[in-house]
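Predict the assembly for these four chains.
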Amino acid sequence: MTEPLHRLLGSDLAADPAFLLARARAVTSVVANARLAPFQLKVRSLSVLWLAGQGFGPSQRELSEFLGLDPSQVVALIDDLQGRGLVERRPDDRDRRSRIIVATPAGRELLEQALTEVRAAGDTSFAGLTDDERKTLTGLLTKVAFGGR
Amino acid sequence: MTEPLHRLLGSDLAADPAFLLARARAVTSVVANARLAPFQLKVRSLSVLWLAGQGFGPSQRELSEFLGLDPSQVVALIDDLQGRGLVERRPDDRDRRSRIIVATPAGRELLEQALTEVRAAGDTSFAGLTDDERKTLTGLLTKVAFGGR
DNA sequence: CTTCAATCATTGACTTTCTCAACTATTTGG
DNA sequence: CCAAATAGTTGAGAAAGTCAATGATTGAAG
């Protein structure tokens, strides 16, 4: 027997995209974090490792802007990853204030494994959507996530 | 002059729906919370007031389930709203363990005003989307937010 | 009818995440 | 060269999330 599957779904709130965004984000991150737990990663720390492991060589400021995090949170995330030998802080020749974050070989190795888990998490989280719908969703979310100034 | 508008957009991460969900949710909630600040509300507390003000008479357990919050968080939210005379805890005749949350007249009044702000916030957050796209997004998000078991 | 397990709301403790202000080193523009 | 802005860091405090325990009540089983 299935759940009552909420009568509250009939409320206006249930049709509010901002609310849906919050709830969808909550459920997906729970699923993904569970999968990442064995690696001692969360979606947050993985995001950093991800960008560091793909040759972008982001500065911390870029990470902070792109991930929507306070610079101090980025510091903490990188401290952790660096302490575990997964990323390095490299000097930026063009600006000595700035640090460029690069994954170590160990970091790239872990990234690979973590990514397969994350993909699996995505498959369960977005199981109700067809491939086309996922693409559509991705496109729409991109506009919302990066639309404003 | 516009922003660099991130080279990191080229990363795989930028195409990951879970990441986009997180970022979209972050930006929309910042916008909405800013609009709600004059009412001393946040999207969280408004959600409760919203459901309480529309005749659903949700129990706290229902709120907790539907909003995806721990029951203790719901207690705190309602304590606050009740302390400000915006909602009441009513006994549930069918189950005396449970409390039914109902907005007071003052609560409904405030809700009205807050809702127009929230709609305005939505208009700025989703400005990049057509009406059709918003509907599509809402539909897709509903599946994700309420899909799994 | 009684007992036992489950459920609802609550409390309290604790961790994580968020937000902000201050500070140092460095860069940029005048 | 100087002043203002920027990158990263630190630290503090607020908000949010997690978890276990408790009292009251319910429902199911015997």
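The radius of gyration of chain B is 18 Å. Chain B touches chain A through 64 residues (CB under 8 Å).
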